[in-house]
């Protein structure tokens, strides 16, 4: 009879699955294709609890679609370039590849143990020369299309660490690592012209609505930041020491032009320096020093007292000829719009705060019925009718916007303009462990791309340890034999570009390579890519909601425009799994609340951990490890598996003569599970499965028991549905039922609609004593299952309205009462 022993199963089945190659897609068109992809991991150490959750979710989808008869592509690879490998190499006096590939091997072994159903033959690593050859090839195609370019631009620079810092690494004007005052330094940097795709990146999100989490779409929309308005050109009058200048501003409110009472340029923009008169130059320079020390976040804070200096210049309002003093201030950003604004204090809060700080006039030009902003200190931002505005008087706001643009256009002093917050993508890094930029700089020819047949430009193998530490230029610059080359065009002496690419470039096209990982004729075989793309289900963390997803969408669109791919969106559906917490907080070393995945797997087994992750709640929700019960999962799995001890009917026995009530539960379970899978309610599928196991056990323990063919039907259904969540237990159960491996491609059972007539009871779900939902459940439902079903109810969530839960009282099968916190 045997007892449930997960270690034995984990030792037995992987070799069988390998032999059957069930997770390698046929890729021959005999079945409809589906592509399921988990965001590929970064090889830092071994897998952790977060991986365990994310990959459980993706695997459930892949296994479900396989059961539904699709040819499923579910691959895995590693995003294996990046800074941590480089830091580890410096610390250990090693080459980054040593650390990287050792970690990849560790993770690969853990993924195998974790039984994710991937096609191992497609495995790729972005740091493999055979992969980054094509990253370089794509970079060249972007370059040829004018979508990759180099320009001189200021970067945050830590003089002590001799390195470029991202904005997030500058804290109170100081280096996050060493506390040294950060300065700005001008560097030649490579950019991708993603701004050229801003409109399409925004508009095509309409196709993703309903298939991507709304919050991710909102974050992307906000990041792209489309604003409709106008460019208005102001003439800055000449002074005795300065010529006349023309400066455009971007405004969303050209209707308020008559309310402009001053003009502001970003203090740190070159423009401020150009405009300032000799008399005011010193004050400006001192002020700029002060501004440089502030972080981006501080600068944009509305809490902070407004600061600024007068430049000695006056701007002429193109609509009414009025002269406005020109100020330099830090609340205007150098790299947004044109870096200059017309200030309308009556109707813009930031301008009003500034006007009050420097006693500048406030003029209302829109009658909104609000209190006088000059007195109240609150800008009138509502709708209204134009006043004090000459020819615009009497118009409503929107009419006035069009009218003002019309006047500006007729006078040639402005026009309609759509501005985007999105910036071009700075892709070059002064680091070693990344894809080398395939460009050669020649004194005579300038930038010369490395010819395709000379790709990949591989990283020099002899740099290690200290050689890699940041020096202000890329560590690659030190590899003289590597740097000094002949110009491919004129054969003269030339130098390789020593920067490497942002690792986001590597991850912007890996999903295409998976469709034909061995392809030698290009980054991917267009025929294969067209057969598999777009990815039908992408799974990954919300931390990638903006950059990775936006960049991958950009790459896909460019590759589409190159004629290599039919799809112009990479991921038709996206699932963000929740974080794994412990005690309500993210696991971290400093809190000491980390949970080691390996230890959990040793103690409870792979299946129990996978099941626990899935059963904890909807996949999007956080999983708090302090609240879950892996041992409860083990108990359930053992109970399911023990059905195999008792089924005595032969394989293929006709269930028609069997226990009708049990058959009804079986078919109801299949029908519900099918529907629930569509809605990604995996946890509720598990709850249903628990009911089915209980119902089956009841029949076994009574009457004809395990000889009833309906019991076999139920047990086989348990095995198939369980195979999505607990592959080892499901396979073992299937085997003990006398069926041949693998349960993974047994096929989803068909529902007999005649059996769906209900034999259920109605459970009432109350929130704070008020009935919020009624659930049709099996009379045998356990307290746990009923609780899970109740907590998954939409009306309950609505009634809770984001409140936590204090207690849940469950009286199975009739009542659940939820008391909110
Ligand atoms: C005059 C005005 C009057 C404005 C008014 C607003 C309200 P969004 O919607 O975010 O695009 N602006 C323009 N460039 C700026 C910069 N570099 N730094 C700070 N602020 C800048 O915002 C556009 C508005 O933000 C513009 O419209 C401009 O102020 C300001 F009643 O112009 B507005
Ligand atoms: Zn040359």
TrEMBL record:
<feature type="domain" description="Methionyl/Valyl/Leucyl/Isoleucyl-tRNA synthetase anticodon-binding">
    <location>
        <begin position="659"/>
        <end position="783"/>
    </location>
</feature>
<keyword id="KW-0963">Cytoplasm</keyword>
<dbReference type="InterPro" id="IPR002300">
    <property type="entry name" value="aa-tRNA-synth_Ia"/>
</dbReference>
<comment type="similarity">
    <text>Belongs to the class-I aminoacyl-tRNA synthetase family.</text>
</comment>
<keyword id="KW-0030">Aminoacyl-tRNA synthetase</keyword>
<feature type="domain" description="Aminoacyl-tRNA synthetase class Ia">
    <location>
        <begin position="422"/>
        <end position="616"/>
    </location>
</feature>
<dbReference type="Pfam" id="PF09334">
    <property type="entry name" value="tRNA-synt_1g"/>
</dbReference>
<dbReference type="GO" id="GO:0005524">
    <property type="term" value="F:ATP binding"/>
</dbReference>
<dbReference type="InterPro" id="IPR001412">
    <property type="entry name" value="aa-tRNA-synth_I_CS"/>
</dbReference>
<protein>
    <recommendedName>
        <fullName>Leucine--tRNA ligase</fullName>
        <ecNumber>6.1.1.4</ecNumber>
    </recommendedName>
</protein>
<keyword id="KW-0547">Nucleotide-binding</keyword>
<dbReference type="InterPro" id="IPR015413">
    <property type="entry name" value="Methionyl/Leucyl_tRNA_Synth"/>
</dbReference>
<feature type="short sequence motif" description="'HIGH' region">
    <location>
        <begin position="41"/>
        <end position="51"/>
    </location>
</feature>
<keyword id="KW-0436">Ligase</keyword>
<feature type="short sequence motif" description="'KMSKS' region">
    <location>
        <begin position="586"/>
        <end position="590"/>
    </location>
</feature>
<feature type="binding site">
    <location>
        <position position="589"/>
    </location>
    <ligand>
        <name>ATP</name>
    </ligand>
</feature>
<dbReference type="GO" id="GO:0002161">
    <property type="term" value="F:aminoacyl-tRNA deacylase activity"/>
</dbReference>
<dbReference type="GO" id="GO:0005829">
    <property type="term" value="C:cytosol"/>
</dbReference>
<dbReference type="GO" id="GO:0004823">
    <property type="term" value="F:leucine-tRNA ligase activity"/>
</dbReference>
<dbReference type="InterPro" id="IPR025709">
    <property type="entry name" value="Leu_tRNA-synth_edit"/>
</dbReference>
<keyword id="KW-0067">ATP-binding</keyword>
<dbReference type="InterPro" id="IPR009080">
    <property type="entry name" value="tRNAsynth_Ia_anticodon-bd"/>
</dbReference>
<dbReference type="Pfam" id="PF00133">
    <property type="entry name" value="tRNA-synt_1"/>
</dbReference>
<feature type="domain" description="Methionyl/Leucyl tRNA synthetase">
    <location>
        <begin position="40"/>
        <end position="181"/>
    </location>
</feature>
<dbReference type="Pfam" id="PF13603">
    <property type="entry name" value="tRNA-synt_1_2"/>
</dbReference>
<dbReference type="InterPro" id="IPR002302">
    <property type="entry name" value="Leu-tRNA-ligase"/>
</dbReference>
<dbReference type="InterPro" id="IPR014729">
    <property type="entry name" value="Rossmann-like_a/b/a_fold"/>
</dbReference>
<dbReference type="InterPro" id="IPR009008">
    <property type="entry name" value="Val/Leu/Ile-tRNA-synth_edit"/>
</dbReference>
<dbReference type="Pfam" id="PF08264">
    <property type="entry name" value="Anticodon_1"/>
</dbReference>
<feature type="domain" description="Leucyl-tRNA synthetase editing">
    <location>
        <begin position="221"/>
        <end position="405"/>
    </location>
</feature>
<dbReference type="InterPro" id="IPR013155">
    <property type="entry name" value="M/V/L/I-tRNA-synth_anticd-bd"/>
</dbReference>
<dbReference type="GO" id="GO:0006429">
    <property type="term" value="P:leucyl-tRNA aminoacylation"/>
</dbReference>
<keyword id="KW-0648">Protein biosynthesis</keyword>
